[in-house]
Each structure stands twice: as structure tokens, then as C-alpha cells.
Design brief:
Strand order of the largest sheet: 2-1-3
Largest sheet: 3 strands, parallel
Strand content: 15-25%
CATH superfamily: Response regulator
Shape: flat
Number of strands: 3
Number of helices: 2
């Protein structure tokens, strides 16, 4: 089954957790962006659409 690529934002203040989750999502074929806090995440969401935000 082919899944379309989604645009995913991963938000976590712990860099290790953020990178680990981002890599797992990328391996599934999705485009991933990361933010280290809610303010950064809100700025990113204002500038581009995301299909999923993981907090």
C-alpha cells in the first residue's frame, strides 16, 4: 500500500527525542520539520501548512 508523503512537524524541547522521532517519521517517507518549543512551532505553522503536528 502506497502512502502519500505528509508534511509533519515534530515539537519537543529535548533534542534527542525530537531527532529520534523525526528520523522514524522520515523513514516512513514523510517530510519532517522540527521545533524546539511552542513559539518556534507557531512561527513555522504560520509560514507553511502541516498535515500533522506531534507534540
Amino acid at each position: 500500500m502506497k502512502i502519500d508523503q505528509s508534511n509533519v512537524l515534530v515539537v519537543d524541547d529535548n533534542e534527542v527525542n525530537r531527532d529520534l522521532l523525526a528520523r522514524r517519521v522520515q523513514r516512513q517517507g514523510h517530510k519532517v520539520s522540527g521545533a524546539s518549543n511552542s513559539f518556534e512551532a507557531l512561527e513555522m505553522m504560520r509560514s507553511q501548512p502541516f498535515d500533522l503536528v506531534l507534540l
